[in-house]
Amino acid sequence: MPTFEDYEGQVPAWCPGCGNFQILSSLKQALVELDIEPWEVLLVSGIGQSGKLPHYMKCHTFNGLHGRTLPVATAAKLANDALHVIAVAGDGDCYGEGGNHFIHTIRRNPNVTLLVHDNQIYGLTKGQASPTSDQGTRSKVQPFGALSEPMNPLALAISLDCSFVARGFAGDPEYLKNLMKAAISHKGFALLDILQPCVTFNKVNTFKWYRDRVYKLEEEYDPFDRLKAFERALEWGERIPNGIFFKNDREPLEELVPVIREKPLVRQKFSPEEMKRELEKFY
Amino acid sequence: MEFKIHSSYKNINFQRHSSDSNKSNRKHRGVKFLDYTLRVGGEAGQGLQTIGGALAKVFSRDGFHVFTHQDYMSRVRGGHNFYQIRFSDRRVTASRDVLDILLALDLNTIEMHRKSLGEEGIILYDSESIKKTFEEPEFIDVPFKKIALDVGKNRVMANTVATGAVLGMLGMGTEALEEILKTAFKKKGEEIIEKNIACARAGYDYALSSCPHCEAFRLEETGNRKLMLINGLQAIGLGALMSGCKFYSAYPMTPSTGIMNFLASKAEEYEIIVEQAEDEVAAINMAIGASFAGVRTMTGTSGGGFALMAEGLSLAGMTETPVVIAEIQRPGPATGLPTRTEQADLLFILYAGHGEFPRVIFDPGTPKQAFHLTNKAFELAEKYQVPVFIQSDQYLGDSQWTFEDFDPGRLIYNDYRLREADLEGAGKYKRHALSGTGISLLAVPGEAGKHLVVTDSDEHDEEGHIIEDSQTRIEMVRKRLLKKMPLIRKEMEAPYLYGDASPKIVLVGHGSTYGVIREVVDIFSKEQKISMLHFSEIYPLPERDRFDYLEFLENADLVVCIENNATGQFAKFFRAETGFEFTQLITRYDGRPFTVENLKEELHAYI
Predict the structure, then answer these.
(1) For A5-280, CATH number?
(2) Which of A53, A57, A65, A271 to mutate to test the interface with B (most CBs of B within 10 A)?
(3) Last residue of a domain, one of B433, B467, B489
(4) Inside any domain, residue B2
(5) CB–CB of B456 and A75 under 8 A?
(6) pLDDT computed for residue B5 by the predictor
(7) Pairwise CB contact (< 8 Å): B452 & A60
(8) Closest by alpha carbon to B364, among B380, B375, B348?
(9) pLDDT, tens digit, for every residue of A128-170?
(10) Could you give the CA distance from residue B75 to residue B368 in angstroms, rounded to a whole number?
(11) pTM of the predicted model, to two decimals?
(12) Domain check: are B162 and B69 in the same one?
């Protein structure tokens, strides 16, 4: 059985009070409770404050480029589907720079968990608007306020028939941990968007702001109803639902790839001798 | 239907095919060796590749040396394309401009290529299909369509008739073609196969019996055993397959897609995953992700797609993740000439990616070299944990060459990845551990016991965790780049010398110009002390201890660098690396490859 300490990594370099701390501890706790050992997990992260998370843990880590977590995570899962592959990204990282990968990874549906630290702002580059910033969000580079409509990642994911769509809140780490466990246990691509206050650059969407608004989806809520899920995903503003919005039973990508049905690609032998017959085909 | 034959043909003393002929009278048409060029021209969608591909295969199976090249437009239907086959009883390695046989599937082909016809060349066409009759002696009217309708009950089979007619003209028999038709139409059933065979025979018989002056073209059997026929892209794909490539991710882009097609066709049989990415950014990040997870990976693209890969290339450099990248060049800038050829990405590939990290660039001159260099690319990528390029271009990629064989015995396969058994009793594993060679051992995550594999695109410490201090940074740059590069340089083979060992004239080329320069050296070597120096292992340039190629160049009276681009990128690169300056440069940048005649003419200005 792994312990919380087994996952203990470097001392985080995040701002004191950052919502990332709760995400980090919820993730460690979720993995411990799921009885997953550190050497069974591959964390793939991008760039931004969220991208540093794997360094503050202990497990296999690929801290890649800004926006590029999902192609790396998808391919790593295809190469070794015995690993639990978890992608960690931010709102700018995943929904901005990596928006195209986000769309196409949902379509592919690898058995990968995506945790998005969504603080509705750019933290690492010091406070510019992000794809999820509310319209009108002012910053040094948005003196007239953000002019674009914010992106709704949950509604977008549901529209693409994403196999698991959920939202959590860093201010409720216990519930967040349970959502993480559900996301990691889900077979197929799982999006967990996490509302994460940025204490330094986002003075609007604070812990209090979120706490006043978030509520959990009702117990009788049916996550298999796609239209309902879409409707609930559109709720934003005075009341912000949390929970598992949508689920389906789509076959994960790895199960559709015939060559890895028996065993992971990484364990398959290479036999050049039998390939010599390929040369004959060119005569 | 009657052939219009000019009387003068009857008087030309061709070497005829006869049962008592011997080797010495196989000198055709004033040429010492048999050396025919056949061009099949028509619109996209008319089946040029099918006809050309079948004929090339028939020739190679009969033991003829073959060189094909394709000239096609970026469209699926219409326009004008051609497929050119040169076949000979000796080795041929480039295309010629002068045609012996033109098979015209449309009027446009006749109008465009008639002027390229050699003195005694002929044009095969179907006056009914193109709605025009030519009276000149070089034209041979064969009713492709009518025969197809009469014999096969389907006009689509006109192509098979035409293919049969070419073989009839050459008197080669239809057996080899029939075998090819059986394979090609296997999925369509017996009836279609039989009809196609009947059409091939009808076209064959028609040409054989009704074209007296075609007798001049009759071929003897070579007596050679059948030869291997393969193009550059297939050779790269085959090289990847036989080097243990398990994962190929790419976004389709002409002219690189053939590699993906080849590997996808082998995916099930040899357990390979071929993933079509949403863009080239994803393609290279996928290749890196799968490689990190423990398998040999490759991606492929052309210049525009590679531009999108520059960021990922730098990631491979920083994280020391092995990856092989095929960059099959086409003329740029931007979309350029999508289906044509150029060698204009060398400096881009050399300098792409932010920051400083090692890389290796190979640029094969033949499909056989492409096969072995792809293998070497995987070996070096895995051994030194660096990105390795197979740089090539549309010309080599789409050109078929014949070979006696490839040598699978020369393939290298060393598994440098660490698994549980390799790490038994080892101390704490550190992905980027400092070492004398700069190489840190590469463990497979999840397969290496409890050892953790950590890497970062940020500068990192030995374990792979993010750092910012200057001492670690210095150590990592030394490890990653400065220590590895001299070791990699030692792996590079000297350039290939062909021709005179102490020449007055040296023609220098790299990559796909190998074949044409070689043939031009053969032509000039009758009167000149001339040789070719060909570079296929380009970066880092090999050491000079085994062969001092600089001294070799300095000792020549005339050195000409030949490049399929406008600015002489190899010459610039070579000067930057060695200080040697090429004073003479022959370039071609119309999107077409050098041909034997064209390069010969260019060289006449110097020689």
Answers:
(1) 3.40.50.970
(2) A65
(3) B489
(4) no
(5) no
(6) 33
(7) yes
(8) B375
(9) 999 999 999 999 999 999 999 999 999 999 999 999 999 999 9
(10) 30
(11) 0.94
(12) yes
